[in-house]
From TrEMBL:
Belongs to the uracil-DNA glycosylase (UDG) superfamily. UNG family. It holds the Pfam family UDG. This is Uracil-DNA glycosylase. PANTHER family: URACIL-DNA GLYCOSYLASE. The keyword DNA repair applies. GO terms for molecular function: uracil DNA N-glycosylase activity. Excises uracil residues from the DNA which can arise as a result of misincorporation of dUMP residues by DNA polymerase or due to deamination of cytosine. It is an enzyme of class 3 (hydrolase). One of its GO terms (cellular component) is mitochondrion. The gene is UNG1. Its main location: mitochondrion. Residues 46-55 have a biased composition (Polar residues). SUPFAM superfamilies: Uracil-DNA glycosylase-like.
Length: 318
């Protein structure tokens, strides 16, 4: 019987404070690396914000009990510091401990789970700085066949394009007629590198069992990540983003769980939310192609931030 791990105790604030180091002090701290704890004279104790601080993954992990260190090794090794600073408090909550224990049980039962552990959070690698996010495309759960899921919603590694992605390409072709639709390339990492956050609400799935990891805790984690991202963009950077919510699940997440109307009112911003039916062949003909989301998204970005910031949706090529 596997050892049942208890949820990590809340980390003391004095320990958490040490996880953040002001960039202006980085050289000083690195030169005095022999000291285990930076002097309070060198680092002011201020509320951390992403734009002027660096989150230290290693120190955060070492501040946790040994059981939690083992349980959260994937997160500490694969979530970029900038993203981890937005969600680290979630990782020690009971629901996330239970989620990680569930994934351990899946592994012990020899279940095949997608994507591979090192790719679960790859959206933070392709777009490592939340400050660069301009667009959020919200998916549901990863593709559940081999050589498909790699941590980016709607994106695949294999040469065979899923039907939903084929329809997404068709939508781009309608908005940008010169787009040469790829026949084999379904890897959307070039979008991510431009600031498109391709995020599934559920980050893992059992092979050949769609939605098998729903309601295990991922939805709580990703909804918090989205809220924190939008608050950071709105309140710290004074910027807004575009959200593309396709299908009832994504629309419900943005309108009810996250409640974008309330977020916009609270932050006194006008983040743009574009909704449509899902690009799946079962629903795409009922309005997805008429939504013109890719052009509307870029028109909004162009007006707000200029031509250099628009997304090159046509960058995916065979």
């Amino acid at each position: 019987m596997s050892k049942v791990l208890k949820p990590a105790k809340k980390v003391r604030q004095t320990t958490i404070d040490r996880l953040f180091k002001k960039k202006i002090e980085c050289n000083t701290i690195q030169q005095s690396n022999k000291e285990n704890v930076p002097s309070s004279k060198k680092v002011e104790q201020e509320q951390p914000t992403n734009n002027d601080t660096t989150f230290n993954n290693t120190q955060w992990l070492e501040s946790l009990p040994s059981e939690s260190q083992e349980l959260l090794s994937v997160e500490s090794q694969n979530i970029s510091p900038e993203w981890l600073s937005l969600v680290y408090e979630e990782l020690t909550k009971p629901y996330f401990t239970q989620l990680k224990q569930f994934l351990q049980q899946q592994q012990q039962a020899k279940k095949t789970v997608f994507p591979a552990p090192e790719n679960i959070y790859s959206f933070t690698k392709y777009c490592p700085d939340p400050a660069k996010v301009k667009v959020l495309i919200l998916g549901q759960d990863p593709y559940h066949n081999f050589n498909q899921a790699h941590g980016l919603a709607f994106s695949v590694l294999c040469n065979k394009l899923p039907p939903s992605l084929t329809n997404i390409y068709k939508g781009i072709k309608i908005d940008y007629p010169k787009f040469v639709v790829p026949k084999k390339n379904g890897n959307l990492s070039q979008w991510a590198q431009q600031g498109v956050l391709l995020l599934n609400t559920c980050l893992t799935v059992e092979a050949h069992k769609a939605n098998s990891h729903n309601k295990k805790g991922w939805e709580t984690f990703t909804s918090t990540l989205i809220r924190n991202l939008i608050d950071y963009k709105n309140n710290t950077l004074d910027q807004e983003i575009v959200v593309l919510a396709w299908g009832a699940f994504a629309i419900n997440m943005m309108k009810k769980t996250i409640n974008m109307d309330s977020v916009n009112k609270k932050n006194k911003k006008n983040n743009l939310v574009l909704t449509s039916v899902h690009p799946s062949p079962l629903s795409a003909s009922r309005g997805f192609f008429e939504g013109h989301h890719f052009k509307k998204c870029n028109d909004w970005i162009l007006e707000k931030y200029g031509e250099k910031e628009v997304i090159d949706w046509c960058s995916i090529k065979d």
